[in-house]
Amino acid sequence: MTYLVASGHAGWLHARRGNLTAAAAELRGCMELALELELLLPAAVTLSYATDVLLERPADLRRGAVALQCAESVGVARRLLEMTVDYAGTRRQFDRQIGSFQAVKHRIADMYIALEGAVAATEECTWAVEHRRSDADVAVHVAKSWTGRAASQIASEALQLHGGIGFTWEHDLHLFLRRAKVNELTIGAPSWHEERLFDALAAGNA
Prior knowledge:
There is one protein chain. By secondary structure, the protein is mainly alpha-helical. The chain has one domain: Butyryl-CoA Dehydrogenase, subunit A, domain 3, CATH 1.20.140. The protein is built from seven helices and five strands. The strands form two sheets. The chain has a three-stranded antiparallel sheet. Strands 4-5 form a two-stranded antiparallel sheet. α4 runs antiparallel to α5 (136-162).
C-alpha cells in the first residue's frame, strides 16, 4: 500500500511506501493501491491531502487513488498514441507510408479523440477531488469509466497498427499495453464505476 506525504519541494508530493491497514480493511473489496515505486508527482495531477486525512478517510483515499490512476492512464495512452503516429510515419507498405492510408488515419484519429476525452475527464476529476467538491464521487466515476476504457482501447489499437513488431518483447509497446489493461480493471472496473454513477443519478445526487 502507498500513501502521500508532502515533500520538501513546494508544489510536489512524494509517494512513498507505507502502512494503511485501517483503510485497506474498508477498501479491500473494491481496490488495491499498489504504487511500488517511489515517484515525484507534479502537483497538477496529485492531491494536496495530508497523510492523516488519507488515513482517517478511506473514501478520500479511494478518490485520490482513482484520480492518480487516471492521470497515469492518460500518460500511458498519450505515449502509445505518439509511438503509433511515429511508426505510421516511418513504416512503408506498397511503397507508401502506412500513415498515408485513410483507414489508418481514421483509427489514429479515433485514438486521439479517446485520449482527449480522457484528459478532460481526468482534469475534472482531480480538480473535484482536490477541492473536495460535493460532486467529487461523480467526477471520479466518470473519469475512471471513460479513461479506463479509452486507455485500453488506445493500447489495443496501437498494438494492431504496429503490426508484427508490436507483438515482440523487443518493442516497448507491450510495457504500456500491460499498464493500460491493468489500470482498466483495478480500483474498480469501468462497469463498476458506471453502476455507482447510475446509483448517484437515480438518487438525484448527480
